Amino acid sequence: MEPDLPCQYSDKNLQEFVHCRGKIDWMGKYWHTDSCYKHYGVDGSMCSIAIYLSEIENWCPVLPWRKGVPNNLLSDPESEMEPLFKLMADDNKFLWMKNRIDRMWDNKWVPAGKALQMKQDLSNRSKKRQSRKREDAKSLCYMKAKGVSNKNCPVSGVRPVDLIYIDIVGLKQFKKVAGSLWNQFSCMLRVIDTFGTEPAFNLDTYARKAGTKSVWGKWGLVPLQFMTMFPHTPDNSFMGFVVENDLQDEDFERPVPKQNDMAVVYGKKADMWLDSKAYLDIIHERFTLHGTVYANTSDDLMNIPRYVINHGILSGDQVQELLKKAKLFVGLGFPYDGPAPLEAIANGCVFLNPSFNPPLNSMNTKFFKGKPTLRELTSQHPYAEVYIGKPYVHTVSITNTTAFRAVLREIQETEYLKPYVPHEFTPEGMLQRLNAYIENQDFCSANPKQWPPLSALKVKISNPKESCKAVCMKNGLICEPSFFKSLNTQEMIEREGYLECKSVISVEDIYAPSFIKESNICHLEKQKLLFSCAGGSDTRNRVCPCRDFIKGQVSLCKDCL
Known about the structure:
six-stranded mixed sheet, 561 residues, Rossmann fold, alpha/beta
């Protein structure tokens, strides 16, 4: 303890630690109620409380004159799949995962790792602490500090692992079990989140005020800790997946021979075909339609036109063989954002992607009600529409039958296509992306390094009602939420908006930093968890942090590697 050094926090110090004051007040009154606090040196003084709340727990910033805890518990990483398989050995529900890993390990993952090593220097990667125990998230929460019997005590010294990958259902269980240790471990979480969690739904206090409450939201994590299947919103991290196929490198260099009039319909459940007959009738004018619909009885196939050749449920290998023969893969409008269109394109198919006008969102579509996102889907598969496009993807309005027939004629007259997989959905691309996240994303340090680097920052000003995601994309860029803090000053608003702020207001909403052009009123963000690429204000111009991206690797900028 060094009582002559400052232990008080200013309001400026606490901009990113909104709960710190409340925790200090509580600890000042109740520090003596748990032997755990005394064990860590809390004696009721401001210094002891500040040190505990900043270094043992993470509620407050570390005091400038204190040094951080050394990271000295490193273990060697495993490079084989056997340790993972041992954790999955006794559970049949993991069988399909094990089979897929086993199928791809030697001929996909290992070569991808070697290829990445040839392109990037991976020799200086920091070793990550890991555990080989199953259900580790639960055991973490009950670890006891040495010499302390109370299970609510924080783990002594360095955390036993660096990262915890978990899904939304597991997250609910984890938080319940963690109890008072939630704040200590929450920064290590990486949440596998199919549809994403936008900032407007992530912070409970704002969600209550703005009417964006969701049973899937209000976690209070840094939005980039949520990892999505597709790059839905830049506010979350894009984890992605690998498109599986049995093609070799040389197969991607030549077109795939096709049956020019063969189409496969995307829809394994019969109810997905409901109200689609008029649409399919037009396609059937040029193509023979094949389906893979599951049915227990003939009544289950009532929605399927009689001219469709239904193969029933097929194995993965059988589906691949069907796609190799077909020229067209037909979307029915649902499911949204699925992997199947990418698998079809990987086999040289053209994907017919139905458009939505007006776009689908939580206000007009039951499927999205309650989901923690403000997304508006302009088509069944927005990724394929925006990042792939023609000739592999034709996004069509099925209500304009004349234009629709012209598209079908164009597809049938198009020469056969080479198989195509965007780099970010290949094993090497996924390894490259996850390696960049693991090495550079840091949500536990009080002052983490800036990543992506500020050299990639390109500032754009939105129009009223326009989101930062939209204005960046309009300029061929990606909104980068980690840059918001660098724009959140009066000086930056004035410089980028070409104005002089007559007044500056601190707000807690998803639209700042921003300004009102007519009145020169400027808004700064008070709550860092509300920095958001999504959302547009009716009256304010948003100051938006954009960046470039590597073609085929949208989550990484050109200076990110």
